[in-house]
Amino acid sequence: MSSTGDLLGDDTQYSVGDEVRRYNLLAGKLIADLIKSSFGPRGFEKMYIDLLGEVTLTKSGSTMLRKIDVEHPAAKAMIDASNSVDNEVGDGTISVVVLAGSLLEKAEKLLDFGMSPSTIEAGYKKAAEQSLDIVRSIAKSSNHKNKEVMIRLAETCLRSKAISILCEKKSVAELVTEAFCTITDFANKKVELDDIKIEEKPGNTSDIELVRGVVIDKTIDNSAMPRLIENAKILLINEELDNERTKTDAEITINTPQEMQTYISKENDDVKEKTQKIINSGTNVVISQKGISLLAQHYLSRAGIISLRRVKENDLHWLSKASGGLITNDLDNITEKHLGFAGKVYEKFVGDDKMVFVEGCKNPKSVTILLRATSKRILDEYHRSVLDAIMVLNDFFISPSIVAGGGSTETIIANELRKRSFLIEGREQTVIQNFAEALEEIPLTLARNSGMNLVDSIAQLRNKNSEHNNGSVHSWYGIDAIERKVGEMYSKGVIEPLVVKEQIIKTAVEVASLLIRVDEVVMKKPAMYTHTHGDGTTHSHAKGNKSHDHFDKLGKMQRPSHHYY
User: Fold this and answer.
1) Containing H/E element for 238?
2) Are strands 367-373 and 196-202 parallel, antiparallel or unpaired?
3) N or C: which end of the chain has fewer CB within 10 A?
4) Helix, strand or coil for residue 553?
5) Residues 306, 284: contact at Cβ < 8 Å?
6) Mean confidence (pLDDT) of the chain
7) How many CA atoms lie within 13 A of 470 on its CB side?
8) 77-88, pLDDT tens digit by residue?
9) Can you give the C-alpha Rg of the chain in angstroms?
10) How far is it, in rounded angstroms, from Cα 55 to Cα 47?
11) Residue 428 — φ and ψ, nearest 5°?
12) Are 500 and 392 in contact (CB under 8 A)?
């Protein structure tokens, strides 16, 4: 028996050795090259069009990578790394892919020099430990209540997004920070990020606003009801104000017109009785998760009460947290504690649609960010950007330590790693020096996307950081992408949470080490191949990987759809 491949069947593909490793490294680098140009404030947008023609326009690394469909397992590992950073800290999704791609590129060069994969992996892990030690030592501690720092963090996060524009009065970063601080319990260090509702409507971007309450994508039930109520007393119910329907099939036998009239009168009396209990409670706004009949609306409108029916369950919970009211299922025992309060409840046009605003709540534990943009695609991107900013604020809230952005932190770590590498003997010294060069790919990518000269930029960065970072006080020189020059980033308010940097380094080294360690691939050839044709038809069948078409011999009529196969 000549080789391991002879042990396996004909339907199994076996690859081994240096070739496998190089294909893995190449796949990882290609994923990094794919989204590298989106990095930073001067990065470019990516457009993805799926099989149905749905267009996604984004600068978010994780969003783009989640959309694309890749076959290679090494490429999937890079995508998983980006997703894990996104899920854990909410930002740094492109940074981790750029750094991992650069580490793979350096690993390939070291392999060419004859260095063993185990030595490279050990060197990377040691360099990662040193990097984490350095970044923690230079990080600046802050107070988790420091609103000014939080605004700077949100601005830095949003500066590289499509939403980095100003509203009429406040920046989006200030609105997001205000929303976060409103729902946060600083005394007990508790926050529920889902309490920030993000509502989207087409319109003018400058009309983005923060509502200290809840915006409901509904209209007031009846035209006879008031359009505005001030000092609103809000009753939230999960009870049907309509003729009740049984959960199972039921039959009622009616023999005479009088019995029919009696039945209808009884149903109306039940609705009237429930409605009267609501009127007696002293409420002037009723919001129900279930239906409200026309008869109930009539009685409520006569009492000057606004009603909203069929409101989503999530909206009802947000309203409860914003107004302080309790959701009730029992109309017989409505008390003062069940009622929520708001400064005003009113209906107004937002774009082409009417929406109901419940705002002016005294101490809201739920708020709404109303996003406006000219198209649904841009609104989706704004939504993703705001979620990233909220996650960054949450990172700072949990661990209030910060570092400067613009690639300055990576440059400081790289300079310090080079100094420490001379204290290490053997081949690991070379690996750590290459790790330092890989870290510099972050500021270099920022410079490249900003149109700066790469040679001049890296020379200035190294020079500035070696000049100003010899003592215990650090200067944070990085790439100012807006000004297109090397500048001191911390003084300009370009800051990021420490935990984001830590997560980027950990994840990038983890995925790079994983791909370096793989030296054999045993792949079972699938019996059925899923594939897509030019006309958008997707299906599976045997030999689908071979060149073929689905037309008859005359080429006139296409065969039946994929069910045929």
Assistant:
1) none
2) parallel
3) N
4) coil
5) yes
6) 86
7) 5
8) 999 999 999 999
9) 31
10) 7
11) -60, -25
12) yes
Mean of pLDDT values over 392-396: 96
Any alpha helices (H) in 404-453, and if so which ranges? 408-421, 428-439, 441-450
**Please, which residues bridge with residue 479 across strands?**
486
Query: Would residue 236 be called left, alpha or beta, if left means φ above 0 and alpha means ψ between -120 and 50 degrees?
Result: beta
Residue 397 is inside which H or E element, if any? helix 376-398
CATH superfamily of 213-363: GroEL (3.50.7.10)
Tell me what pLDDT residue 271 has. Answer: 86
Nearest to 159 by CA among 367, 385, 428: 385
For the chain, what are the domain ranges?
15-141+402-517, 213-363
Neighbour count for residue 541 (Cβ, 10 Å): 15
pLDDT, mean of residues 458-469: 85
Task: Please tell me what DSSP assigns to residue 484.
Answer: T
Of residues 221, 133, 227, 119, the one with CA closest to residue 516: 119
What does the pLDDT look like over 147-191, one tens digit per residue? 999 999 999 999 888 776 544 457 899 999 999 999 999 999 899
pLDDT of residue 168: 47
Q: Report the residue count for the chain.
A: 565
CATH number of 15-141+402-517: 1.10.560.10
CA-based nearest residue to 451, from 478, 482, 484 = 484
What is the widest separation between alpha-carbon atoms in the chain?
103
Other Cβ atoms less than 10 A from the Cβ of 177: the count is 25
Q: Provide the 8-state DSSP code for 485.
A: E
Q: Are 393 and 349 in contact (CB under 8 A)?
A: no
Tell me how far apart the alpha carbons of residues 505 and 132 are, in angstroms, rounded to a whole number: 8
